[in-house]
Amino acid sequence: MSKEQLLFCPLGGSGEIGMNMNLYAYGKEDNQKWIVVDMGVTFADDSIPGIDLIFPDPGFILDKKDDLLGIVLTHAHEDHIGAVAHIWPSLKCKMYATPFTAELIQEKFKEKKIDILPYLKIVPLNSKIKLGPFEIDFVTLTHSILEPNGLSISTPLGTILHTGDWKIDPNPLIGGTIDEKKLKEIGEKGVESMICDSTNIFNPGRAGSESDVRDSLLKIMEIKTQRILVTSFASNVARMESIFYCAKKTGRSICLVGRSMNRIYKAAKKCGYLKGLLEPLEPRNAKKIAKNKILYLATGSQGEPMGAMNRIVNGIHPEVFFRVR
Ligand SMILES: [Zn+2]
Prior knowledge:
16 strands; Metallo-beta-lactamase, Chain A; alpha/beta; 2 domains; Rossmann fold; single chain; six-stranded mixed sheet; binds zinc ion; 10 helices; five-stranded mixed sheet
């Protein structure tokens, strides 16, 4: 008779950046139950002309979908959730995510005209779910997005700590701090393996805290006398809040430019973040504000050709005009 096994099977994201999709299985060889952790995409570059998005080949798990217990999502970056609306229709299983991630997932399915709510289970922060032989404990970490969760996945054969993405920020300014106590407890109980993902892990040194970034940005903005345009990843809600903070401190109104900046702003507000801030202006109203009284926060921080920043600096944005010398 075969023995029970605990398997880890990455379909994407291991040894590469992007398109994270990790599978775990538990059971005897002829009766294994599976879970999927994350379902992300990679954005293609110029080396693959005609292709915009790449996601993992789900064929392996499609063959086993009757034994699939659910998809668990660690956080809302596109390289972790970008493929759900593409792959899920072939799986039609339950999905588990914390509130902010769940909000953005719902938007993805709305675009595809799919009502995902009956399948989407919203997991409170730092709580547990049970999927067959897997007991999954969500652990709040810190990262460049709201609600990054590590997963402590316990099975009768031991515990795996699946970290998702993280950076240790002692002062993240928004959202929870890293749940050090819970991590210690998990460690004391014993971890069989840690599946860990953090960009630049091999570079020694420390990444700065968001609070240091906020202080520096304010110093720079205080001496500016013309319009200010800031670009950032839309999903970095702490950075967004820092820019709102700087606008208020420097007596400027703020205007959000770009679809994803507005989408993330609304999702964060809906989940109870970004409280007590200035009300952002629409671009058509921001045009009327004096140059030294307005700050724009735009998408396109990676120079995407259709991102708001690129269109503004090239003078082709329909509503935001800057004279670039
Ligand atoms: Zn991430």
